[in-house]
Amino acid sequence: MPSSLFSFAVVGVLLAVGVVAQIPGSNFKDFLLKNMVVNGTIPRSFAIQPVTYYETIPEDQKLHEYTEPQFVATCGGNVSADALNNYTFQTEVWLTTLGLNIYDGAIRCIALSLVGEGKACLNYTVETLVDHKTAQFGDIRGDKECAGVMEYGQCTDPQQAGVCGFCYGDGPSDAAKSLTVNNSYFFRLIGDFWAIEGTVDERCPALKRLWTWNDYKPILGENAWAQLIGPIHNAVLMNNGDINSITDEDPMFILGIQFLTGLEAMAVGNTGAYYYTPRNTWFGYSATAQNIGSTVSIENQASLLGGLKLLYDVINGKTTTQYKSVLPKLQSMITKLTTLILSAYDRDLGFFRQGFTYDPIAGTLNWGQNGEPLFAVDCQTWVSSVLGTRLIDTTFGDATAYNLWQTVKLYANYSCPNGDLCGVGYTFNNISGQVLSGEWTYGAMNWLKIMQNDSDYNSTLIGNLNSDELAMNYGLFTYVVTSTPINNSTESYDTVLYAGSRYWIPFGWFANPLPALASTGWAVMLANSFNPFHLHGYLVGAVADWKF
Ligand SMILES: *[C@@H]1O[C@H](CO)[C@@H](O)[C@H](O)[C@H]1NC(C)=O
Ligand SMILES: *[C@@H]1O[C@H](CO)[C@@H](O)[C@H](O)[C@H]1NC(C)=O
Ligand SMILES: *[C@@H]1O[C@H](CO)[C@@H](O)[C@H](O)[C@H]1NC(C)=O
Ligand SMILES: *[C@@H]1O[C@H](CO)[C@@H](O)[C@H](O)[C@H]1NC(C)=O
Ligand SMILES: *[C@@H]1O[C@H](CO)[C@@H](O)[C@H](O)[C@H]1NC(C)=O
Ligand SMILES: *[C@@H]1O[C@H](CO)[C@@H](O)[C@H](O)[C@H]1NC(C)=O
Ligand SMILES: *[C@@H]1O[C@H](CO)[C@@H](O)[C@H](O)[C@H]1NC(C)=O
Ligand SMILES: *[C@@H]1O[C@H](CO)[C@@H](O)[C@H](O)[C@H]1NC(C)=O
Ligand SMILES: *[C@@H]1O[C@H](CO)[C@@H](O)[C@H](O)[C@H]1NC(C)=O
Ligand SMILES: *[C@@H]1O[C@H](CO)[C@@H](O)[C@H](O)[C@H]1NC(C)=O
Ligand SMILES: *[C@@H]1O[C@H](CO)[C@@H](O)[C@H](O)[C@H]1NC(C)=O
């Protein structure tokens, strides 16, 4: 893409031959538009390319999480650990082949809106999210009424049929913990099809049952992107940045305002935080997984804070709107949430911790979530992008944000063969080695762009940040920016792989070197220096202008 200086210099030539300069990142537009579920209605998070990718994964690159048999009602008895592990891989294959993570959907939306295809995003926002359905699923929200919390022994589900429902938060009764369809969280991963023809459920192959969709996790962070960040940028960009021309009927308000009611139910005591997921959400058989509904993810809080601030800025910025009355509530939420996120920073560790587990009876919290590492790259890059450099540095000392970036590199860099910085991974490198994350490297570049603009660092530090940003951009272009066929097409489409290699991320999923909506959408945002956490994409902390 021409730099802005270059386009200025040649503008006369361009006009002379009648060529209109393309919006940066437009080369990724076709991948974002055309990577749709085959015979379905929704975009697809990944393209399985090459089509034989999953057939080539060796056994030692699969998760072997089970060592004991478990009772599986649909199989009519206990299933061996070996069969359960096979099923885990089978599940990964189908969820990756057919699923859309609604966070990826939001990133796609923002990117399409930036390259002049906002209508495709609006279509998804209305037909899939507001209508909360896909081809075969009449409801993609976790709104089944709470019939008691299983972890507390209030409800049992011997047939594993989901009869206990979803219990949101710590309300005094099952009714108080039940959310209506419009207020509940969406499932983080949605699909068009429930049962996949031609498959055999590998837990009990002799029964010859089809593999069926099994991911029903209403997660906060994905919802913050799907219900706030994605639709709000779409509305602002489709109205050419003119907030007053966004109507009160816009889907950004339908989704965003209803979401606030759900959040109220999910408040974590008086901490200012919001729970990760309702109780009874199925995260596996382990003891920590039973407790997942009592946990909080700091990355999720950062996404939510960014989204709430966007909603605040739109409502506050509009001359007239029926939603002005929501401002005091938003104001209080934003203030408390910012304070909570700041408290995740540990001066001794020198980074923001990943999450905590809350005890609603004692009203106490313990840092750590679901046995996961305390250090996550996105808890530094996204959290710092939302807080902004000045707030971090005034709270924790001069150049804290800059030093935090040095810590991220020390723990989680991906280095090129010559040892230079080429990107970042997901967590401590000493857990399972280095990996290049497409999406999280763009997230780091976004943070460095913000730091260069919103800090008062001297030119030496700014120069270092700039050269790190460029080094990572080089790494991405070298290792994950590529082009791919879709649906066995002969044509190839520019795209960005999710990661440089297959890698078990200890936060609960595999990274794969597959063309991905998330990485590709982030590439478009970075090409436009568009920071998704700020209205109009400005390179400044989301709460930098907040009055506490
Ligand atoms: C792939 O198939 C889907 C749905 O069948 C379609 O929407 C999409 O445009 C196709 N992509 C290409 C590149 O043909
Ligand atoms: C898509 O639908 C067409 C027409 O029904 C069918 O022939 C084709 O096999 C389907 N493709 C897939 C991948 O399901
Ligand atoms: C089934 O597995 C459970 C462990 O999940 C075990 O406690 C139980 O004894 C097993 N039952 C049979 C019949 O093997
Ligand atoms: C698990 O899958 C492997 C092949 O991938 C197969 O050899 C084995 O029999 C399967 N185990 C069970 C219990 O089905
Ligand atoms: C969304 O796209 C589908 C398929 O192209 C079309 O039938 C539908 O009318 C569109 N909906 C909106 C709200 O634009
Ligand atoms: C849910 O919201 C839709 C608007 O998107 C509205 O038409 C519908 O009546 C609402 N349903 C309930 C139960 O409030
Ligand atoms: C990059 O990570 C490795 C560990 O994988 C570490 O030894 C090295 O110091 C890190 N590099 C920088 C510049 O922090
Ligand atoms: C990995 O590195 C971190 C930071 O130095 C350290 O706290 C942790 O104990 C290390 N973990 C392992 C398994 O070596
Ligand atoms: C720039 O700031 C850093 C951190 O405060 C400091 O160590 C360094 O000496 C400064 N460099 C110059 C040239 O002022
Ligand atoms: C692409 O080709 C593979 C193998 O040849 C086939 O299994 C798959 O269904 C094809 N995909 C589409 C969308 O036609
Ligand atoms: C840089 O930050 C200032 C506020 O400090 C903001 O007004 C400006 O829009 C930002 N620049 C860009 C390019 O986003």
TrEMBL record:
Domain of life: Eukaryota
Keywords assigned by UniProt, alphabetized: Signal
Signal peptide: 1-21
Protein name, entry field: Membrane-associated protein, putative
Species: Bodo saltans
